């Protein structure tokens, strides 16, 4: 098949799971084009991301004359479909609270995307995220008629499904992927009963960097690591309060925060306010090889999220035999269980502090048992090769109408 992957921003440090999916499909003999609205605004650190950037076509980096040529080709060859898509853009704008200008832009992006799919003879267009990339793909489908599908991760799609027109996107698609059973349940809430059969669970997968069995039994120091975008939904500020509680008890440990994002300055101020400069390390964005190294150096990974889908970093840590501390939300309990980690109620400072204390005091035997159990569960559920095979079957079948 000739497949195209489309999302808002690609490649990006937090979108490694998309790259793994593409590479696994290519390994199965498919040609995969990479399309995105824009390129990553920061500096890419991972060599694989840098290579992917060279292979990706970005709508907003397309010279104006070429973009207008794409729009004109679609208007001349498919005037009726283009008019229908323009009406669809205005309907999405109404459900979004009147953001007509934004959706007019999405319409023109869809004209370019439809032209690229025609040019590259795409059999199937797959989108990651049910937000504006799925809007653009739905409109491109109305223009060009190609089959399309999208993967919903959450939590943004679950926070505002009506504003995003999630039900309309499901209705137009060939199929929709949820990354957990919880995610599927949320999609079922907003899909017509007739469209329930379109909604499938395909887990995000991890690749050989994490599948190979060469991890140490346990970390060598009193060290915890949190790998996540520095945003409000990940719970970093609560995590710092928990770290301060443990320091007040006299515990000596290190907490490493890997990632970047809009809360970086506030997190830095909170580290200073709580007197954690000698305890907490902020690394910023690092390469995937360095992410793996940080996990291996830690006793456990901690991710006290307030809202989620199913974080890939949890399966990466567990594949490396590092137990995880996380929260009872979304799809996380489907992966993290008492035999392979610690789950706490989201927002519960005392419970989070207690779980971190248990992880730091855990014996080598307990860490070994949890690590082995976590690796087994991850390999059973999150092998990228099995996930790609499942997607291949879905993409090859006729569109569900």
TrEMBL record:
It comes from the Bacteria. Keywords: Transferase. InterPro entries: Glyco_trans_4-like_N (IPR028098), Glycosyltransferase_grp1 (IPR050194). GO terms for molecular function: glycosyltransferase activity. Residues 54-207 form the Glycosyltransferase subfamily 4-like N-terminal domain. This is Putative colanic acid biosynthesis glycosyltransferase WcaL. It comes from Neorhizobium galegae bv. officinalis. The lineage of its organism: Bacteria, Pseudomonadati, Pseudomonadota, Alphaproteobacteria, Hyphomicrobiales. The gene is wcaL.
